[in-house]
Amino acid sequence: MNTPNKLTLARMIATPIFMATMLIEFPYHYLVSLVLFAAASLTDMIDGKMARKYNLVTDFGKFLDPLADKMLTTSAYLGFMFLFAKNGSYGWQMTTIVFIVLFREFMVSSLRLVTAKSGLVVAANIWGKLKTVSQMVGLVAALFFYTLIVDFGLSQIQPICDIIIMVLFWISAILCVISGLIYLNECKDYINSSK
Questions:
Q1: What letter does residue 148 receive in the DSSP assignment?
Q2: How many Cβ atoms are within 10 Å of 51's Cβ, its own excluded?
């Protein structure tokens, strides 16, 4: 297994650890989860660049890399859905955003499986990459804000931080819809209900 694929696997292994640090309350747990999430997000950038630069791109990596992204971002969104529901603010919006994210991810994963039968590995396109970057940026910002609010006791900034978080998350949700529709359009020739 090459180094980019090892980095992708490391991101997958880091996901449940990140989720635990986000949800289990202990001193500075948001700071720990922020560092873990940011480090895992960086592996996404590094593994792709390394694979392209050193000609280490594999079908396994093309499939595994977006899966690792989905695992990491979805776990963070679920954590924030729990947090906002617990706090009683923006719960319906967060639930809607998580639904959009999950719907898109399941659809794209299904399309990848359908096209794989024909020997086509659908790699992430620019819209999928923009979606992932917007998610990573939004989630890092949200974790940073909650580090300030909870870990450092700056609860007075929570109302404005929550608004900024929701705006960033809605931008990601819109990019989820756009990229999902583009994947659907690109794969339409492989969808055949008569087979």
A1: I
A2: 21
Q: What's the token pair of residue 195?
A: 């087979």
Q: Are 57 and 48 in contact (CB under 8 A)?
A: no
**pLDDT, tens only, 108-137:** 888 888 887 777 767 678 998 899 899 999
pTM (two decimals): 0.90
Is residue 81 within 8 Å of 166, Cβ to Cβ? no
State both tokens at 18.
């990140």
Angular region, 147: left φ>0, alpha ψ -120 to 50, beta rest: alpha
Nearest CA among 71, 38, 65 for reference residue 52: 65
- Where is 101: in which H helix or E strand? helix 91-116
What domains can be seen in the chain, in order of their start residue? 3-190 (1.20.120.1760)
